């Protein structure tokens, strides 16, 4: 029996992914998951991240494999005449080009946006960069952790008594990839009206600053420098990891009703009427004594069992799981969030769920290809 793969929302869109490392490749994978025909152009030695490990399979890192499915790969040396000629032969069929070369590199090769947009006016060109092309930091290279440091993210991450801490995943790179994806989709939508492509730039620096909610909003309003609060939310409480008689749990109380239900579940019904804690503002201001009272009561509870009780009562709560447990959770399977393809590939599925044109998984990483697919 033959399984028919549904046409994705971006079926018919052809993408040249010239990018390396994370932000650009992540954008290309999102587009590919939703039906675009993505041809990834790599230098002869391959994307740098092929060597970012361990672990490795067949000499290629898991890091690379996690960002480059639903693409076919061709190797071209764009610094050579032959490589540039091969790229130019592909461009008449391309709708989107993604690249993250150091600013000025493609222009020096004679294949920059200003040049090629004259020949290919419908082309949507997306550049992922560290800091943009100009300004005090313009054209400088940028990596996720350095941008986390410079945009204030590290300053508000970590324990209150500890030092600045890098977020434990490349959040700036990944959000920049998502912003690049949004930009591509916006430009394609506008092209349907005007018939013209345009240049998009998604910069790590901009994306890092854009992640600062609510810390930036707080600073704009009161001028106080945001500080680290550990697991606790800076504006609301209890929104924190709390100790129990067994494992810690995370409780995310966002309103007075949830707080009253929480107190009822842990045997402190009168706490919700205490003037110190009866509204969100009071609970946030008086968070330290509130945490002490809550954890004293929680010491009598099994954390995992309490989570079930709280969730059933409408109080957002969760166990604090390691990565392997999260990936093997029954709800992860139910949501179809793990992809398996021939050849032993496993990865995180698209979190974007469309009813008629769902994501599909057609090409494992490292699938070869020299041209766009027919049809």
TrEMBL record:
Keyword Transferase on entry: yes
UniProt keyword Calcium, yes or no: no
TM region(s), chain numbering: none
Superkingdom of the organism of origin: Bacteria
InterPro entries xrefs: CoA-transferase_III_domain, CoA-Trfase_fam_III, CoA-Trfase_III_dom3_sf, CoA-Trfase_III_dom_1_sf
Keywords: Transferase
Protein name in UniProt: CaiB/BaiF CoA-transferase family protein
């Amino acid at each position: 029996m033959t399984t028919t793969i549904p046409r994705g929302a971006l079926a018919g869109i052809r993408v040249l992914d010239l990018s390396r490392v994370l932000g650009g490749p992540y954008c290309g994978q999102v587009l590919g998951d939703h039906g675009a025909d993505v041809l990834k152009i790599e230098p002869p030695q391959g994307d740098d991240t092929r060597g970012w490990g361990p672990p490795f399979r067949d000499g290629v890192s898991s890091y690379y494999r996690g960002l480059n499915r639903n693409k076919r790969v061709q190797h071209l040396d764009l610094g050579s005449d032959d490589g540039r000629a091969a790229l130019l032969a592909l461009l008449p069929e391309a709708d989107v080009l993604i690249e993250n070369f150091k600013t000025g590199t493609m222009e020096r090769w004679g294949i920059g946006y200003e040049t090629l947009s004259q020949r290919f006016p419908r082309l949507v060109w997306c550049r992922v960069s560290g800091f943009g092309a100009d300004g005090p930091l313009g054209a400088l290279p940028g990596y996720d952790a350095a941008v986390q440091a410079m945009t204030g993210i590290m300053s508000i991450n970590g324990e209150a008594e500890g030092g600045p801490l890098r977020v434990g995943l490349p959040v700036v790179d990944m959000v920049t990839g998502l912003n690049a994806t949004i930009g591509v989709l916006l430009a394609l939508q506008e092209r349907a009206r005007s018939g013209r492509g345009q240049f998009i730039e998604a910069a790590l620096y901009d994306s890092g600053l854009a992640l600062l909610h609510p810390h930036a909003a707080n600073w704009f309003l009161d001028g106080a420098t945001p500080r680290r609060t550990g697991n606790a939310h800076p504006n609301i409480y209890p929104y924190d990891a709390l100790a129990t008689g067994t494992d810690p749990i995370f409780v995310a109380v966002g309103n007075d009703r949830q707080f009253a239900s929480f107190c009822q579940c842990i045997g402190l019904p009168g706490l919700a009427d205490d003037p110190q804690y009866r509204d969100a503002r009071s609970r946030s201001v008086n968070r330290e004594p509130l945490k002490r009272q809550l954890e004293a009561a929680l010491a009598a509870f099994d954390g995992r069992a309490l989570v079930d009780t709280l969730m059933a009562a409408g109080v957002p709560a969760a166990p604090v799981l390691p990565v392997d447990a999260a990936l093997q959770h029954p709800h992860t399977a139910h949501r179809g969030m793990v992809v398996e393809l021939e050849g032993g590939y496993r990865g995180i599925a698209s979190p974007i769920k469309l009813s008629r044109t769902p994501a599909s998984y057609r090409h494992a990483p490292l699938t070869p290809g020299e041209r766009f697919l027919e049809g």
